[in-house]
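Practice problem 4.
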């Protein structure tokens, strides 16, 4: 397993996954038209507070690049059928070189997101009431997330600052260790046999503040440490069962450390947690729906949600980064499968419309799809944020 883990860098991973391939509440563009003769899809989309629990919205992280290009987040959310996203970003894609840099990137990212939300007339949700009000009004909304506790740099008080800035979901770990690590990353050799002492402190402080913890990128031992410590339910926002390997053996081999076993999935569910099913290792909407169904069969319909690990908006690539890619302003330069509304070649409608259609074909009922689409996440989000 070490050979597999060490053989692929983050860049290799991103390059590899790039090749994987009614009357509506929000009127779609012509290219995203759905079959309006099937009222079931329309009814379910309209009833569901549909949430992608892990959607990357790229923003500049350097002060001199703020606020970044204009993006049509609201338009893309309307096309997707999603009511809300857990809007996330990470600060460790490029190497952190000095003390304080992770925090600077984090605050710059939040500043950029403030401007982007303002220009799109979108608010952040701080609790379930905010989600319900936005859904009733037909207005998209976001839950602020960050992937990795790198910005903390060992300073627990920064969680309170982040909370005041709107953070309501924290991915404890990401691809690289923080300067003060929080625990074992699932693609790296273990160092702590679970969470570090600081990671355990962060779990307790998130519980106190009312921040939902995302356990993706955590080793099984780190997940189990967090589950034992936490007084609140948690989510693994983007993974799939390690029995659902798709049609590409080399991709499946590389992805294996990032997938969850049936046994571990049950441990998360038995602790009241949720598991988000991502789009990786699926070459069609049918395959994606089958992966969701497989997770439901293992942990039950009350413990499954959606977490695509895609982008609703174009990728942002720093003009100063040493990458052989076109400037971020060229919206046509996107990897296949990267954008939420264009994941699969056979996708003919926005993301959630597509999911609903395929889950119906598999025999899932309207109440089951509503739970998977967002009701399960709303329940957990409410438990974590209520009273804060």
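Answer key:
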């Amino acid at each position: 397993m070490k050979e597999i883990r060490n053989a692929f860098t983050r860049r290799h991973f991103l390059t590899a996954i790039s090749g994987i391939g009614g009357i509506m509440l929000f009127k779609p563009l012509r290219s995203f038209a759905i079959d309006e003769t099937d009222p079931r899809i329309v009814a379910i989309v309209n009833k569901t507070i549909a949430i992608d629990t892990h959607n990357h919205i790229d923003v500049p992280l350097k002060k001199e690049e703020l606020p970044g290009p204009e993006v049509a987040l609201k338009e893309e959310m309307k096309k997707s059928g999603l009511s809300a996203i857990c809007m996330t970003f990470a600060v460790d894609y490029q190497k952190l070189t000095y003390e304080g840099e992770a925090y600077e990137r984090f605050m710059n990212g939040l500043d950029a997101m403030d401007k982007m939300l303002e220009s799109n007339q979108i608010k952040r949700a701080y609790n379930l009431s905010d989600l319900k009000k936005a859904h009733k009004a037909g207005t998209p909304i976001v839950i602020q997330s960050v992937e990795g506790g790198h910005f903390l740099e060992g300073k627990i008080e920064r969680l309170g600052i982040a909370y005041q800035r709107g953070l309501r979901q924290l991915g404890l770990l990401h691809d690289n260790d923080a300067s003060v690590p929080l625990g074992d990353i699932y693609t790296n050799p273990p160092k702590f046999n679970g969470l570090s002492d600081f990671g355990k402190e962060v779990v307790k402080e998130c519980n106190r503040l009312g921040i939902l913890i995302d356990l993706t990128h955590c080793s099984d031992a780190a997940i189990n440490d967090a589950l034992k410590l936490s007084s609140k339910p948690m989510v693994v926002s983007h993974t799939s069962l390690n029995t659902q390997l798709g049609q590409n053996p080399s991709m499946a081999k590389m992805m294996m450390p990032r997938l969850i076993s049936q046994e571990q999935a049950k441990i998360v569910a038995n602790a009241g947690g949720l598991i988000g099913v991502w789009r990786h290792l699926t070459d069609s909407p049918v395959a994606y729906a089958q992966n969701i169904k497989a997770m439901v069969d293992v942990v039950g319909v009350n413990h499954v949600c959606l977490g695509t690990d895609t982008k609703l908006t174009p990728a942002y690539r720093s003009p100063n980064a040493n990458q052989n890619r076109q400037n971020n302003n060229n919206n046509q330069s996107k990897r296949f499968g990267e954008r939420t509304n264009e994941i699969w070649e056979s996708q003919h409608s926005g993301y959630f419309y597509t999911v609903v259609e395929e889950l119906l074909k598999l025999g899932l009922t309207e109440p089951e799809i509503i739970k998977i689409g967002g009701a399960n996440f709303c329940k957990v989000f409410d438990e974590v944020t209520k009273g804060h």
